[in-house]
């Protein structure tokens, strides 16, 4: 698949990327020949059925998995080096807040590890709490917050140390649709305000189309890219844009891509 | 106080069974005495006598209660006849053993979680150590330590620690491994080292497990201290009370000492429970 959006500086560059897990049942090709360039400030969604390698690809970018073939650079460095340079924040499917820390304490976790001063920690906590609309919730414990608020806190935690890249692995997969709609809107606002590069794994077509500047459709066995769709939607996206013919056309193309990738299995 | 009723019902049933057992087990002696004296005894007399013997097979609950009360309040706390004195001797060995055992247990657990060689080698030994009867080990510990000049509280504390480190190892290994992959991955994305992972994630996550273990291990510590008092023929401590009671057939003394030990153990477990609630509440882990 040829990239068309490599006009801006490349932030993530994958060339012929392959990743094989050795299991007792033989090798599993989680990723095969994945080539993709993500430019600065892009919002790229990865969509596909389970086993298509979308999460594995995100984890490889974050140096949580190591590719067995091809090359992968983040900000021109190896993923490991990029991690040491605090290049990205990672948001997991579950908020994963520490129950023994307050919301503010949870956001301070990466800041403590990275050695920010106490004053700087306080200042940053206030700033990112405001960014995710959780002002005043710093002293609450996670169990006192709803699932959606917990996930917002975990996004705040990923934003706290000013990484340029935000990697989100099905962050709203466990939330109900009403909450998910709101959080999608907020993520877009956040993206506009912070101009971060975002990699977003999802299995929801409307979510992918609504959020992304580019949608990467993937398919399993072996995990590979089957289509890359440029969004023609404007950057400003009210929720009702999802009823526009343009939106429906893109969603249709994603669905077609998913079906083609599945071959005769579905 | 709705919860009190079932507790009191069970307690009443136990006391009733106990009284029945007292009459049943002690009647033989009453009958023997009567036969020797050549008199007939009525059932009422048998019952009355069974509850008031000096060395009954099974003392009645009120006899044990009086023995306990006399032991606690009847003498100066420094007197060798005071249960408070003996309890305090046992308690000090228990607490020293508990501290040693807990520290050893935590250190071993940290080693097991962080070192593959220890993971594979230590656990089987720890389990094997608990399959050896403590009664067989205790005299050897006392004798060996006495031969190098260590006597008194420390040998008892060592036996106590021997019993109490095990629940802590098991609980802490489980607790330190409680964080799931996602939480560990999260720390990896921050480039956190083992040190941060331990202090900020593993240790706090293990706290509920630690306290559950401590409750078991503090009771085991007490058992260890009592057992440590038996083989040496110690002159002080609840174990010594048990031993001298059995030498002289003082069943009431034995039972009073047993109850003193049980009350002590319950108190220790309750204290751990209070510390647990306080700690976990401060950590925000109690809702």
Provide a descriptive summary of the structure in words.
The complex is a heterodimer of chains A (266) and B (287). Chain A has 266 residues and is an alpha/beta fold. Chain A folds into 2 domains: 10-87 and 165-265, P-loop containing nucleotide triphosphate hydrolases (Rossmann fold); 97-162, no CATH class. Chain A has helices at 54-61, 79-84, 103-113, 118-131, 147-159, 177-194, 205-211, 245-262, and strands at residues 10-23, 26-39, 43-47, 69-74, 88-91, 165-169, 197-202, 214-219, 224-230. In chain A, the strands form 2 sheets. In chain A, strands 5-6-7-3-8-9 form a 6-stranded mixed β-sheet, sandwiched between helices. In chain A, strands 2-1-4 form a 3-stranded antiparallel β-sheet, with helices on one face. In chain A, helix 4 crosses helix 5 (147-159). The two termini of chain A are 24 Å apart. Chain B is mainly α and 287 residues long. Chain B has 2 domains: 4-58; 83-282, MetI-like fold. Helix content of chain B is 79%, strand content 0%. The radius of gyration of chain B is 24 Å and the shape is elongated. Chain B starts with a helix and ends in a 5-residue tail after the last helix. Chain A binds chain B through residues 59, 62-64, 83-84, 86, 88-90, 92-94, 96, 98-102, 109-110, 112-114, 141, 143, 161, and chain B through 182-183, 185-192, 196, 200-201, 204-205, 207, 283-285, 287.
